[in-house]
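Fresh eyes needed here. Kindly weigh in on this sequence plus structure tokens:
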Amino acid sequence: MTKTLLPINLGTAGATPSWVQQAAPSPLPDCDYVVRNHELANMIQWGPLCDKATATTLDWSAARPVFSGHVPYSNYQPVCLGYAGHQFGQFAPRLGDGRAHLIGQASLAPDHVTRNPFHSKLCNRQIEIQLKGSGTTPWTLGGDGRLPLASALREYIYSEALAGLGIPTSRMLAVLNSSQLLQRQHMESAAILVRINPSHIRIGTLQLLALKQSWMAWDGILGTPDCLGQHYQAISNRFAELGGHWMSAGFIHGVLNTDNLTLTGETFDFGPAAFLQRYRPDTAFSAVDSGKRYRYSRQPAALFFALQQLAMACKQRLEAAHQNAELSRTDAQQQVTHIADTLRQFSAALEHQWIVRLCQRLGLPSPSTELCQGYLALLQSHDIDYQHSFLQLIEVLDGATPPAWLSGHQGRQWLQSYHALCSGADVMRAHNPKFTAHLSWVEQVVQAVVASTAATAHSHTTLNQLLDACANPFKQPPEPWQSPVIVPKGLQRTFCGT
């Protein structure tokens, strides 16, 4: 007997809420794996998909018909989620999983329990398994429900790069390619991406529930109204930490709409993502972000805007709780005040997280906003490769002659102040990767795999080498991927693949 799969924190009892629709994937023909994440698979208890010989590891052969949409996972009925959201600043009341299906849940192995304290409330040790590119859903809205292979590979690669750097992120278990062709910018094969995340509930989910005044479903996610301020603060803290990670790492998400931000605070739905190359704060790589709304320097503001929308939805819930005699006016107002105070403190909290992490990269024992700002100003004025600059600074600490951008008057002044506080090159080495998944390198590998109609050994070898470098960024990468990167002429673009 099948059971309806509800988002993790709603359980599987009771009626299915209206924003959760049962829908089966549309199988892709002739599917086979392009890449598999064995490390991630070993973190998860797979139950019916376990290899019978080991009783623990994933049986990839048995999983292939499940991950390609041909066979249900265990006894779950797949579902798709609806949500609302602000897309590039404009509210869209009817959004949802247009090409993705939640197919089941699994448990993290005991030694891989998530470190995020908010997860313990929202999903404990459970994770959700989602197929992306698995066909049309009630929210497809005229599309074909498919995902081009290039887009699947980009999301897989960047998730591994983020995970390798210790940045909270959704993870990708596998990419499967098929014989079906899609017309996008050019003809390309359709793929399915198997995505793992603690929860797929987004800020946009709560925006939809507030719009519909579906307070029972809302409380199933965040609990009773009397603890709303506490949970809002937990979400805000997580976003401040996440934003600090992004800014220090030079990561650009690309599409920070409120429907792409999960309550558990992983980097999520980052199709047109990339890492900063030359330090230009207005850098934006997304082909759909013509106004650069989500450029690198504006990511903190985008996260603030998202939390502002969540605060407005929370206020609606608290007003309803007072009207329904669930909370007194005083108690409701206390929760509103708590949320407002948290929102007011968010930008400073994110900047603090950013400065702390940037100071770690600079080998400074304590945060110094002045030294960080001076460093970034030097990079910007000299148009320096952001990632390589830290490696050059390590060489200076090891006795090398300072490069040109540190040899002028401002550079010498900054170095003098820096030397007085720096803990040394070894501390910097512990916090600065030798490899960064630059867009040009990622695109070379992705396009080689896409162009390989026979899935040649060369393209897969190169892909696996790149993924190994992403997973081990503090080791010396192979020769083609050592910094500094040669930035191609012209403005680079990357795509969601919708």
